[in-house]
Inverse folding.
């Protein structure tokens, strides 16, 4: 019985795509990409979302850029992975909160 509940809750889990955008030969982009893997589990645990990490090999004016779905949420490499975690986590929390309000109808949550 418990196993069925776990499978259903995993199936309903929202999938969020987080991308680092910048050239493949860029050390700052590579560092940001590795940091995403370091913080992935924490983001998943704190948001309840399944995180998918991608690298978009594009030339951009400021790199790396970090995107959640198609929205740029940070430009440039932060000082450490913890700062990146805080930025992404706060954006996801805000996004999930507004999504719940929209889906719950008049009056919000």
């Amino acid at each position: 019985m418990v196993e069925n509940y776990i499978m259903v809750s995993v199936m309903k889990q929202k999938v969020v795509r987080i991308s680092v955008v910048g050239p493949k030969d860029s050390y700052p982009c590579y560092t940001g990409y590795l940091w995403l893997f370091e913080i992935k589990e924490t983001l998943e645990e704190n948001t309840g979302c399944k995180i998918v990490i991608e690298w978009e090999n594009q030339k951009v004016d400021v790199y790396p850029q970090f995107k959640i779905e198609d929205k740029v949420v940070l430009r440039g490499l932060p000082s450490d992975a913890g700062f990146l975690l805080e930025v992404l986590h706060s954006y996801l929390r805000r996004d999930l909160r507004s999504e719940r309000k929209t889906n719950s109808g008049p009056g919000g949550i």
Remarks:
- The beta strands are 15-21, 50-56, 65-68, 71-75.
- DSSP finds three helices and four strands in the chain.
